[in-house]
Amino acid sequence: MNTYMNTIYNMVFIYLLLDGMLMNVMLSLLNLKEKDFSSSLNSKICSVAHSPPGYVEGEVVYVGEGTRTSHYKDKNIEDKVVLAYGNPYLVYRIANQFGAKGFIFFKINIHEDAIPYLSLFLTPEEAKSAKTPAAAISKRDAYSIINMLEHGLKPYAKISIEAEYRENAKINVIEASLGDGEKELHIFAHYCHPAGTINDNVSGSATLLELVKTFDKALHRNRLSLPRTMKITFIWFPEYYGSLPYLMHKTAHHQSKIVFGVNLDMIGEKQEVTKSTLNIIRPPIFISNIEYESIIVKYLIESLSIGKSFSNTIQIMSYRF
Known about the structure:
Elements: E1 9-12, E2 19-29, E3 35-39, E4 54-62, E5 81-84, H1 88-97, E6 102-105, H2 124-129, E7 134-136, H3 139-150, E8 156-166, E9 172-178, E10 183-190, H4 202-220, E11 230-237, H5 244-253, E12 257-263, H6 271-274, E13 278-279, H7 290-303, E14 306-308, E15 314-316, E16 319-320
Parallel strand pairs: 4-5, 5-6, 6-7, 10-11, 10-12, 13-16
Antiparallel strand pairs: 1-9, 2-3, 2-8, 4-8, 9-11, 14-15
């Protein structure tokens, strides 16, 4: 890296990070014939991230979304295992107040056999008092439990999670910047994942590295001028807490004027093969920047890969907002 690119430095966020060291997870249904629904041997994400360790057996009660106290009306969940599809953090807080002993989460808007990647996002203070284990299962398995309940059966579940918290856990936020302007343009990518998959998010992290190399070479060969009024900042951050702690730190302690940011997450899919749809997600209105959003969307749509068949039919890859 030559002198055009500012030195990379690390920012360590300790106050928001609490690491859960996961050793083993097992979720089973104990009716008629025991059935293993999910295990860390088959899926590294079957434990809800930040779940405390524990072993519980109990009757399963389905509460639907489970994010409001009204969802528990006429339902006795004390000393029972809650099955829900709502926001895990909200369900966890509310159901614990009613005495739940365990949690099983699923999502309704994903493939029926996929085990969702979910997190409680507990603060270190909340984690110290958390005692109830939480696991995740596929939609297919969740619906089979719901079907039992609808037919008058009482399914019992066993949840076993071996894990430990480390209060001194640290995850570096790595930053490289280009230029010295007051305003900052950010490009993000998370560089950690419990399963360590190529698409999620080696694709984004590697692309960010390539962008740094490309900018650096262009400057070195005088094909690009050093920005004067803008600083381009490249950031690699931990996934569990994302870019929010970093942005809070930058704006609170460095008075940074961040005008726009792009998050590169799971950008490694080849749509011609996966038949997937590219999701373009806008930021909340109160921090949106219409000018930069319009520029990004324009060039993104123009550069989407185009495939031609033998009949010369042009197929534009699908996208949605």
